[in-house]
């Protein structure tokens, strides 16, 4: 059974502040208590190791910090097209293997995907402008990140623990903006 706990933001919208449940598949409702769900608050699913799939409604625009941290069975997630903000550590230590960032997200914040040991592929939307330091730190299986030309990529975006790797990837991104293949 899934239960969500909300906080009213205004007359029309709410924020999901808490979750309890033990289901492998989580479907977040678009409306709760007659209000549109727009924000998923920090650490909402943190440590829920049983979750393998999450469906986020199109109404959500903001995913908080540590949202899926430690969701070690989470392999599949589709982010809504209307999403504009993904905060630090949102996916850290989860088991996602591939993700598509929607067009409305302008920045991949520091440590968003920290220690996602199974992450192989990231496709960034057309609105992305910046990939911050540490965004992909500890993503040891990362093979490719695809983004539009002109995206500002921090030299430390791929981690500070492997400086040589970080600089190599950044140089490649500068040489061929919009695509790089880490493994080749």
Account of the protein in words:
The protein has one helix at about 165-175; strands spanning about 5-10, 15-20, 25, 30, 35-40, 55, 60-65, 75-80, 85, 100, 105-110, 120-125, 130, 145, 150-155, 180. It has about 180 residues and is mainly beta. The chain folds into 2 domains: about 1-85, Ribonuclease Inhibitor (Leucine-rich repeat, LRR (right-handed beta-alpha superhelix)); about 95-184, no CATH class. Strands 1, 2, 4, 5, 7 and 9 form a 6-stranded mixed sheet that branches. It has a 4-stranded mixed sheet with strand order 10-12-14-16, with helices on one face. A 3-stranded parallel sheet has the order 3-6-8, with no helix packed on it. A hairpin with a 4-residue loop joins strand 1 (about 5-10) and strand 2 (about 15-20). The model has no long low-confidence stretch (mean pLDDT about 90).
Labels describing this entry:
184 residues; mainly beta; 2 domains; 6-stranded mixed sheet; 4-stranded mixed sheet; 16 strands; 7% helix; globular
Q: State the end-to-end distance.
A: 45 Å
Give the H and E element order.
EEEEEEEEEEEEEEEHE
Helix amount? under 10%
Q: What's the overall geometry?
A: globular
Radius of gyration based on Cα positions:
16 Å
How is the main sheet built? 6 strands, mixed
Label the structural class: mainly beta
Kindly estimate the percentage of residues that lie in beta strands according to DSSP: 25-35%
Q: How many domain modules?
A: 2
In the predicted model, the low-confidence regions spanning at least 5 consecutive residues are none
Short description:
This protein is mostly beta strands and 184 residues long.
């Amino acid at each position: 059974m899934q239960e969500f706990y909300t906080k009213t933001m205004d007359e029309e919208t709410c924020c999901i502040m808490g979750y309890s449940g033990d289901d492998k598949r989580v479907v977040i409702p678009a409306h709760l208590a007659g209000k549109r769900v727009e924000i998923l608050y920090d650490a909402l699913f943190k440590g829920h190791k049983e979750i393998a799939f999450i469906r986020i409604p199109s109404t959500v625009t903001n995913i908080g910090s540590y949202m899926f941290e430690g969701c070690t069975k989470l392999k599949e997630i589709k982010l809504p097209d209307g999403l504009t903000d993904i905060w630090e550590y949102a996916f850290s230590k989860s088991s996602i293997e591939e993700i598509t960032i929607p067009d409305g997200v302008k920045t991949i914040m520091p440590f968003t995907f920290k220690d996602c040991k199974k992450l192989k592929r990231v496709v960034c939307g057309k609105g992305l402008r910046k990939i911050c330091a540490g965004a992909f730190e500890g993503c040891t299986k990362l093979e490719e990140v695809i983004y539009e030309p002109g995206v500002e990529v921090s030299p430390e975006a791929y981690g500070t623990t492997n400086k040589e790797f970080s600089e190599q990837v950044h140089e490649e991104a500068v040489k061929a903006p919009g695509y790089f293949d880490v493994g080749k």
